[in-house]
Amino acid sequence: MSTATATIENFYLYSSWVNSGGRIIEGPSTATETKAFVVSGIPSGAAIESVNLNADYGSPLSGVRMLRVNSVSITPGNQTVPLAPTADGNGTYTVVFEFQAYGDSSLSDGTHGGSVTVQNATVTVTYTSGQPGPEPEPEPDIDWNGPRPISVFAPGVNRFNNNGQAVLHPIDGKLKMVANGAYEITMRHPIDPDGKWEYLIPGAIIRAPVPEETVENAFIGISVDLYRTNTTAELRESANGPSPITYPEWNWKDPYVVGSRVTCTGFGNYKCIEYDATSQQIMVPPYSSSWWVEIASSTSGAAVLAQLPPGQDLYYLEDAGGGWYKMSTPMGIEGYVQSAQVTYVRHMTPEETDERIIEDQLFRVKHVTIDTDEMTVTVYAQHVSYDLAAILVRDVKMSKAAPAMAITGIVDGLMMPYPGQIATNLTTDENGTYTGAINGKNGIFAFLDPDSGIVPTFDARFARDNWDLFILKKTETDRGVRIRYGKNAQGISWKRSIENLVTRVVPVAKAQDGSDLYLPEQYVDSPKIHDYPVIYMQRLAVKGQVGKDDGTGTGTAWTEAALYDEMRAKAYERYTVDHADIVYTEISVNFEEQGDTDEFAWLKDLEHVRIYDVVKAEDPRVGLEESLTVSEMEWDIIRRKVTAIKAATNLNATTANVAGYNITNNSIGSEKLTESAITEIANLLD
After folding, report:
1. Which of 428, 201, 395 is nearest to 306 (CA)?
2. What fold does the segment set 224-242+302-354 form as a domain?
3. pLDDT tens across 138-173, in order?
4. Quick one: fold of 478-499+583-672?
5. pTM, two decimal places
6. What are the distances in angstroms from CA 501 to CA 347, 529, 542, 584, 654?
7. How far is the CA of 321 from the CAs of 97, 233, 234, 563, 627, in angstroms?
8. What is the pLDDT of residues 623-648, one digit of tens each?
């Protein structure tokens, strides 16, 4: 590791204020000042390990109570790991700290002022160097008439509309896609005399072709006015935002009893919780927590459907009056936004509101194996959306959150910014709500975990366009493909199983004394229970104990009646979401093992299917005719064609273990991991 430093010799923070009755009534209670430290000599592509500040603080004067450092940011781009190259390539970055000095409210009544000196403030940036040597000037953007080539880009770049560091010429390359799971490529590249292979390092980004996919715009082919948020905004269920709540102003001379509510200007609203408060008080409520508890200072307003960052596109629907617009996200979530928080951009024509077409994607190299005997480099890379697996979610609790609000809750809980947008077209009425708590897990876990993830909970489709993620309603696209059994059908594997069939669920929670709690009726039956000669019973553990916190973050405890409802709901999900009451059917097709005979010409239609598509499986021997969902796909990134697919009756069953190997350490229990999370399709032949 290496370090770079910058120093500011000294500066002062000064504040003035007026005290009355043990609190500050005029002027700021704090003084803040930001200082920029210009740090030079950091090579492009470097990864920041730590940023430290050391300084000598002079003695506070005239009542300045304390000094602290509030925040740090690094520019350009406010990026921390990895640090992006600067525009001029000279390794100069600006580190900004905010210093804050507090006035002392315990001084006598009257006007006060004070200052504090900060001396020899030094910032030290510790970093790990990127590739040695200067980075070449970025190539200009290219307008391709045809498919874009497979290219490699340095770890820290953010422009991909060119050929990057090199156009690659792989020997072979395979893309694996799993519904709501893996999205990765494995590629072999020669150790070429031009040295292109040297750019294939961990952290580098590969642009590669993928099966064409579309993400529909809710306003496709419609003229609409485009607006854009000019600040952080909220999309609400109705035109009703928060409004302040005020109580009588707190006065230290007034007696108060339990339940009294006061407003303390500059601090908030408080409720008296101790009889001791009936005597005169010399401490402001925030500093006498044994007497007072803070309460809401404003109403919550209408439910928030989504938190909108600055720059979010919105489509105008109508003027709702009172300073509110009714608007829609491009994905179709409608709500209300304060008109002052959006700016008109332009009118969009029907051609501009077209669907998003995904043709190639970015993959981050995870590991590289060099074979000097074969003179090849084998690269394994994951889709860049898995950058989200490096970001933890902190202390998120939600109760009956609408889909858009559940996504917002996860995004707000991320401990580092995620560079892409995360959008949805799910609605509460059609897709239900989300209740759960996530703490210390990573972002991919929060969205894809089979038990508690947002996507499985809403039985949604997960689409990705580089860093942009889309959680969408499932659509059963049937392209008219039929898979027919034939005794000479090489490369086709058929599987039918009742091994995990469930037609009677026995949900079990915990009673108040810790013993097992069963439903009064004991179990919940599937509507299909009489379709089979045997009843298949399963015990289902449901989180919750009577009298204990219900995990919604509202401070409420489980009642027996509420826990019974939760147990029944979880049991029904085994049928409605997991489809555990259906005989599992799975078909794997390897196109490379098929000939070009007329007998199997129908298989060529399968080359056009996509993940989540519906295909029909037919086996006249046993009268089988079922609709299956494509759950896995392999794609040759060089020949740009599908080479193998897997389709199954129950998508959740095929992906239940997929997320495991895409989750970082300590983010998922070992019970989720199997020796082979995905059944490998037979080796592909050239």
Report:
1. 428
2. SH3 type barrels. (2.30.30)
3. 556 666 556 789 999 998 888 888 889 999 999 999
4. Elongation Factor Tu (Ef-tu); domain 3 (2.40.30)
5. 0.61
6. 54, 10, 19, 8, 14
7. 42, 17, 17, 43, 49
8. 667 778 888 889 999 988 888 888 88
